[in-house]
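The instructor's notes for this session suggest beginning with a concrete chain rather than abstract definitions. Hand out the sequence below and ask the class to guess, before any prediction is shown, which regions might be ordered.
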Amino acid sequence: MAATDKDDELAGTEQPFVSHLIELRDRLMKALIAVAVAGAVLALWPGPGRLYDFLAAPLIATLPQGATLIATSVISPFLVPLKILLMAAFLMALPIVLYQVWAFVAPGLYTHEKRLVLPLVVSSTLLFFVGVAFCYYFVFGQVFKFIQSFAPKSITAAPDIEAYLSFVLTMFLAFGLAFEVPIVVVVLARLGLVTIEKLKGFRSYFIVLAFIIAAVVTPPDVVSQLALAIPMCVLYEVGIVAAKFFINYTKAPEEPAEGAADQSAGEGAQTGPAPSAAAEPTPAAAEATGGEETRPASDAQTPPAVAPTEPPRA
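After discussion, reveal the predicted structure:
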């Protein structure tokens, strides 16, 4: 009998876990299908070769007339465009992937937690795309011009396609994550790890930290370092302003205190009139005592004092 109870207990606890695994599998399959469909569309148009040409356009524009990129490996002309195709397909299907993640996590969150998570997921995605676009359309052109200006005329620049792809992915990741500074600030402030006053006091230290990160991540040129450090400092201030709003917007509903609840419950209780110190006897009580009224000891009549008698005269 004990074994049967144990089996029933295990069966009851396994079912929710298995259902969660099935849901997770379905969500992952939908995300992979979305990436596969985006990859198939990009493979048909514009194609892997044109995607790489689009990615290499900022560098080609700064190279000498007639110079192109080279491939030092035999399979590089095939693998490099394929990697770019997969990366572009994932970025194209990223909204659907994030929606699947949100649909899996949202049922286990409270209302005030949903108010925090959903805006952060959407805003972090948009900020990452903005950082990548800022790097491609502004930083690459300025950086490549600055680098080519130092190249001697006796040297013909012909970068390798694999090295260029690695450089591009590193820069995209660096600028995409750098533009997530407001999200990090909001999360730290919302979790109570830091206060708004501490964030304001850390402002000067963050400026130094931003320039150190820019010097380590970006190439050793002034243009790319400034292009990464200055937006980070500006976004830090944006994060402080956004943190004030999110703290009030995602605040959990306050529960009534126990003392207040007890006091409100006590007010509804019926209370009788307070007994008087010297209550008058009821007629029933007077009848029980033989019809005589009872008086307090303080009001009892004292016998009159007897005057002393004088002795008789002789």
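Then share the key points. The CA atoms of residues 234 and 305 lie 104 Å apart. DSSP finds twelve helices and no strands in the chain.
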